[in-house]
Amino acid sequence: LGVEGAKAFSAMLLENTTIVSLQLSGNEFDDHAAKYLADAITANSRVEVLDLSYNMFGDKAGEILGTAIAENTGLKELKISWNHFHSQGAAALAKGLGANIFLKVLDVSYNGFGNSGAAALGEALKANNVLEELHVSNNRISVEGARHIAAGLKENKTLKRLNMTRNPIQSEGCCGVLKALQANSGTGIKILDLPDIPVNKELADLCDAVKILFPNLLLRHGGNTKLQRKSQSKVELQTEPKVMGNSQSAV
Asked: What is the pLDDT of residue 222?
């Protein structure tokens, strides 16, 4: 659909009061298209589910859409994976998340948030008390970024699922996230997806300890066979399912 399509959809959404779910993935929307869509996101309070994945949004779009997300009063689920948000745009998106009091599901997987974007997400998690699902798979988040997200988890009470698969956070980053859960007795986390990495003894022991503390927590990550057998009775260890074709449900 491109820029002209975004312009047309925006004009429609400024008047439409019946559409509650809108799938606009794979339309080559870029930074120029973002300004039109942002107008609709700001003004329309009826759309609850918006899918803008597999487009061409960059950092400028992140700034534009981040401001719109902060002001939106209707969206409950936003999928914006498989775009080109990096540090600056990612931080702007995360800032918008921190100010939004309605959004429950956010999927920003397969972008380039990096550690600076992760830092902004961590701050957003400290302030946001509504978001229930956050997907940040494959965002070039390393150990430093994992620490930032962990700092947010330590204070957050409402997030129920966090997906951090396919990030180079290593065992040290995984341990940081798990220690944050240990320090937050009021955490709402029910599902935690960590990267498929070799599991050392420290991480395996920490997984066991967290599982004892939160017996209903579904904790998923990879690991070598020996440690996997050791911890299997207490912690579910599994690798991320392969993405088949262009399936968005697998993201």
From this structure: 63
Cα(201)–Cα(216) distance, integer angstroms: 22
- Phi first, then psi: give them for residue 16, nearest 5 degrees: -70, 135
1-79 against 85-89+99-227: fold identical: yes
CB neighbour list of residue 233: distance below 8 Å, 6 or more residues apart:
none
> φ and ψ at 162, to 5 degrees?
-130, 125
Domain 85-89+99-227 sits in CATH at: 3.80.10.10
Q: In whole angstroms, what is the distance from residue 129 CA to residue 145 CA?
A: 21
Distance CA 119, CA 94 (A): 9
Poorest-pLDDT segment among 10-24, 41-55, 175-189, 235-249: 235-249
- Distance in angstroms (rounded) separating the CA atoms of residues 64 and 61: 5
Residue 42: pLDDT band with limits 50, 70, 90: very high
Q: What is the pLDDT of residue 199?
A: 87
Domain boundaries in the chain?
1-79, 85-89+99-227
